[in-house]
Amino acid sequence: MKKPSLFVSLIPLLLLIVIIFTCVRIFGDQVTAGPSQFTLLFVTVIAFAISHIFYGLTWEQAEEGMVTHLKNTYPAILILIAIGALIGSWMCSGIIPSMIYYGLKVIHPAVFLPLTFVISSVISLVTGSSWSTVGTFGVALLGAGQIIGFPTPWLAGAIISGAYFGDQMSPLSDTTNLASSFCNVPLFTHIRYMLVNSLPVFIICLIIYLIAGLTIPTDSTVDIQTQLLALQNTFNISGWFLLIPLISIFLVVKKVPPFVTLFVSALAGAIAAVLFQPQICDAIGGGRFAAAITMIGSHVEIDTGDKILNNLTSTNGMAGMMNTVWLILCVIAYAGVMSASGMIHVITQYLLKFMKNTVSTIASTLGTCIFFNMTLGDQYMTIIMPANMFTESYRKQGFAPELLSRTIEESATVTSVLVPWNTCAVAQSTVLNVATLTYLPYCFFNLILPVFSLFAAAVGYKIRRLKN
């Protein structure tokens, strides 16, 4: 099969960006309910047609590329479905309402935003999973913050920023282990070297969220005490319910597979709902067993007598993740054709020509990872491919391998959640019910870290080289 030119290779990517942004302007938050999926399939067909007519790509080769991407992405789909089940059961069991209740009682509104950032960081650092953090503690923090009166985009930005800092720095994180192993860097060497850039950016973000928390008006239209009373009247609130999230964290630390951990936690939540929230099960209807299945699998509305709380406590279970799963499958089709056609390879080979000094090397790596997040839609492939591509180039220029692994993490990992059609962004926007482009301007850690990485390269700050 002949290789496409650089110009031809850029056509599907540019077309995707233009149509997606147009759809966002037209459909708003409903863009993932069909418009994004159609756009991805439309661009997939265009990319295949160009590759087939002019370069000889067969449909069988395109399908093979799709299957390869499906194999890499399938675990993420299972995790996403499990998160839907977990949110449904934890809400109905009183776990998330208890988190919201005690959060409102303990945390002062003035420091709520920076504490949201810190708490998300700590939980993600301990669990090694940004997805689990956002889907559990993140949902509770979002609900509490909305009751206080903070703008939802600010809350989502603080939660995601903290979750991705903790994920990046955790020795339990799959992406952290992936980057270090594919770049042949000892895990803790990789983590310590990442701290050089990530810690200053963390402090900058903490200051931003602190200033925002002190200056953003938080005068809620409702009395917080009224909200607390409504929670007490609807759910049996207890600190004992927090044992289930702690058990979940313990399972993650013990390296139980994420899907198993999340699904077991969802089942534990459903059992807790049956035992300790009989009034909720009765409201769902159909008997206790049917109520447990319903809260895990489908839409549940809980009447708290308060409009704001009704919106916060309504859940969609596993069914609520189906738009996201559908979108991921369309992303896989697009990425499979782009890979099989050689278009991605052509663009990345072009970028390699610019890697001549420290700044251009770091800039090319950052740009390539962001490009892969936009074209592949999967952060795992975005980590693996640059690691394979650039290892030799870094070695020839005398750079230590941990510089490559760090730069990959500072772009591939943290920017994945900023691309609306990337699986990470799709997952977080679905879980938090906030559109990617809505929370994007407030994800300061994810936005600042790649810029800081380039700045550090420009001034020669802590650029590690091979000893020999």
SSE topology sketch:
Elements: H1 6-27, H2 35-55, H3 59-92, H4 95-106, H5 112-127, H6 130-148, H7 152-169, H8 174-182, H9 187-215, H10 224-234, H11 243-253, H12 258-276, H13 278-284, H14 288-297, H15 307-313, H16 322-340, H17 343-352, H18 358-375, H19 379-396, H20 401-415, H21 423-432, H22 436-439, H23 444-459
Helix pairs in contact: 1-2, 1-17, 2-16, 3-6, 3-12, 3-14, 3-16, 4-6, 4-10, 5-6, 5-7, 5-9, 6-7, 6-21, 7-9, 8-19, 8-20, 9-20, 9-23, 11-12, 12-14, 13-14, 16-21, 17-18, 18-19, 18-20, 18-23, 19-20, 20-23
Q: Classify the beta-strand content into a percent band.
A: under 5%
The helix content is over 70%
Largest sheet descriptor: none
- Integer-rounded radius of gyration: 23 Å
C-alpha termini separation: 42 Å
How many discrete domains?
2
**Secondary-structure element order, as H and E?**
HHHHHHHHHHHHHHHHHHHHHHH
Secondary structure tally, helices:
23
List the defining traits of the structure above:
468 residues; mainly alpha; 2 domains; 23 helices; 76% helix; globular
What does this protein structure show overall?
This protein is mostly helical and 468 residues long. The model has no long low-confidence stretch (mean pLDDT 86). The radius of gyration is 23 Å and the shape is globular. It contains 23 helices and no strands. It has 2 domains: 6-66 and 343-459, no CATH class; 74-321, no CATH class.
